[in-house]
Amino acid sequence: MPITNVPAFTKIPSRDDPPAEFSADVDSFLSEIPDRALASNQQAQEVNAAAEQVATQAATVAEASAAFESGVNADRWAAGDYSDGDAVWSPSDGLTYRAKADFTSVLDPAADPANWHNLNPVAQAKDEMTRLALVFAANF
Q: What is the distance between the alpha carbons of residues 107 and 127, in angstroms, rounded to a whole number?
């Protein structure tokens, strides 16, 4: 994302200049202030927009990192109470799952997609490819 550059002043008045030159330099200097103010405001808006994008991306990375860490530290699933975000690994398929809400789990996460989110992108991709293949086969 390009950020607007604030233009430099073409001439900055100096008290050491002769009065006529100083006066002309002040006039030039003052005439450039509005353009610099507009450019500065534009630059601030662009920087703020970039900062919002960075904050959004940082939140996404933090969420992914937390999911990864919870998956790495997951316990073996057993029937019982789970809180939103708890991670377990399924004894039936060995994959890691995260609870979607607070609930009492009685089904293995591999058999309970309504309550568990599969944290295994390869497994999710395989499932999605199977679903798309079935849709394709049904329509062609």
A: 20
Its pTM stands at 0.48
Residue of 76, 3, 97, 78 lying closest to 43 (CA atoms): 3
Distance from the first to the final alpha carbon of the chain: 43
Write out pLDDT tens, residues 9-33: 999 999 999 999 999 999 999 999 9
Q: How far apart are CA 71 and CA 103, in angstroms?
A: 19
Q: Please list the alpha-helical segments (H only) found in the chain.
A: 19-72, 121-139
Please name the residues in contact with 110: beta carbons below 8 A apart, sequence gap of 6 or more. 90, 92, 93, 95, 97
